[in-house]
């Protein structure tokens, strides 16, 4: 029962992490304009994401523009996109595989060993998915931080971490932790020892002496 509870907890955490990765990928707030300068302009807030850039006016109106050409984007942004999309696809595969191996599901009940392996394999897929998202968000955040502290970057073009990055870091951590729980939820097999063989009994004496 404890193993089943750990398995269910791991799946819920990994699934929530996967949903968070999807939300982070779709959000435009991967980086936001910084106002840490003398000439502060608060009439609008500028955001940039993986797919579009947005400007929010002081009145609350938001205007977004999708990036025109994929070939004009920076290679690092394209790589970040690829990693996040791969993370989402891996998470989708992990959901189906882990659900098949869950103890509360009736699939593959006749073979508990394969069912147990499916749960572990689903956990491994979730871990890889979380690592891909963690690498993408950390790489993007490192670029934002380096550009912010670069003395050659104009003050009015500096950006800070957006909320999508924090959601991505939390979601990838959940996916990795949940996948680890799935991998550890399977009970250990008890070591089976071969049956002990008794010592051969001495043949009963028949009372006859052999020369």
Automatic annotation (TrEMBL):
It is a multi-pass membrane protein. One of its GO terms (cellular component) is plasma membrane. One of its GO terms (molecular function) is structural molecule activity. Keywords: Cell junction, Cell membrane, Membrane, Tight junction, Transmembrane, Transmembrane helix. The chain crosses the membrane at residues 7-27, 79-99, 119-141, 161-184. It is found in: Cell junction, Tight junction; Cell membrane. Claudins function as major constituents of the tight junction complexes that regulate the permeability of epithelia. PANTHER family: CLAUDIN. Belongs to the claudin family. This is Claudin. It comes from Oreocharis arfaki. The lineage of its organism: Eukaryota, Metazoa, Chordata, Craniata, Vertebrata.
């Amino acid at each position: 029962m404890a193993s089943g509870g750990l398995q269910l907890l791991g799946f819920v955490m990994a699934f929530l992490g996967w949903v968070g990765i999807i939300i982070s990928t779709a959000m435009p707030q991967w980086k936001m304009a910084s106002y840490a300068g003398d000439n502060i302009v608060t009439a609008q807030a500028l955001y940039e994401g993986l797919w579009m850039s947005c400007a929010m006016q002081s009145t609350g109106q938001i205007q977004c523009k999708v990036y025109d050409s994929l070939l004009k984007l920076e290679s690092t942004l394209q790589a970040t996109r690829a990693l996040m999309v791969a993370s989402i696809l891996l998470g989708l595969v992990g959901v189906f595989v882990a659900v098949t191996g869950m103890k509360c599901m009736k699939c593959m009940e006749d073979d508990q060993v394969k069912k147990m392996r499916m749960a572990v394999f689903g956990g491994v897929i979730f871990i890889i998915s979380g690592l891909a998202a963690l690498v993408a968000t950390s790489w993007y955040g490192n670029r934002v931080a380096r550009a912010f502290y670069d003395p050659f970057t104009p003050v009015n073009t500096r950006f800070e971490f957006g909320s999508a990055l924090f959601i991505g870091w939390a979601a990838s951590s959940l996916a990795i932790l949940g996948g680890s729980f799935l991998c550890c939820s399977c009970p250990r097999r008890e070591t089976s020892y071969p049956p002990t063989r008794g010592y051969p009994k001495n043949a009963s004496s028949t009372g006859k002496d052999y020369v």
